[in-house]
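Here's my example:
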Amino acid sequence: MTHQSQTQFISGPAGKIAVHTQGPETGPAVILTHSILSSSMMWLEQAYLLSSTGWRVIAIDTRGHGQSECQSVMCTMDDLVADTLAVMDAMNISKAHYMGLSLGGMSGVGLGIQHADRLLSMVLCDCRADMPSPMGDVWNDRITSAITEGCQSLAVATTERWFGVPFIEANEVVGKAFRQTIASTTASGFVSCARAIQGLDYLDQVSHIKVPTTLIVGAKDGPLPQAMQDMQQRIAGSKLEVIPDAGHLPNIDQSVLFNAAMMRHFFQNPAWSQA
């Protein structure tokens, strides 16, 4: 049985947060969070797969992205953690599974460190737990472009960086969808989240994560496979899945392999799939 996605708006620290729910109301909750300059649209295939196998999917649009508001241009990673908690509290979810990619994975690290009591498990994808200065500095020009020209100025370069030109040329519908999503991101949402990324500093606390954790990363995602291997060694009992021939969004460019890794995580414990 499949379920139509329903959208509701929850009051958050920086304005209304759009939350898209799908699947049986009595199913175990899985929270999905996305990359910067994207929205819950990037999880459509995974949301359908999870909801059709009995899970209650809660896909959150990050502040200033998708349909969510952002009434500030200053934001920390802890603020994004607070946004997730605001959604859980408003929906009366005491504990949930969590899956985040890129920015969503970074804030997920903070959630796992600070609020393990609210989590059943985590899937952290294509992310890191710190932001060395040279990597953080690359966001400065992007921030300037977003402020002066809007996020549409970032659409082509970002999409090519995520997927590579050959994939985009072979998958025009996907490329167009992501360019439109990037272009529609508010400048305040992008700038605030980019500054949160620049301030990312969780690495020394990663070993405090005690919930069952799977790390997933695209093999061709620059320095992130190495960064996630380092994280995996710091999180006791965690698993690392490297998706071959995949870039920054392996759930899109290698969805079959990503979905298999995702389902291995969520069905590793029979008790998790019970309401």
Observations:
- The longest strand covers residues 15-22.
- Residues 133-149 form the longest helix (17 residues).
- The domain at 6-130+202-273 is CATH 3.40.50.1820 (Rossmann fold).
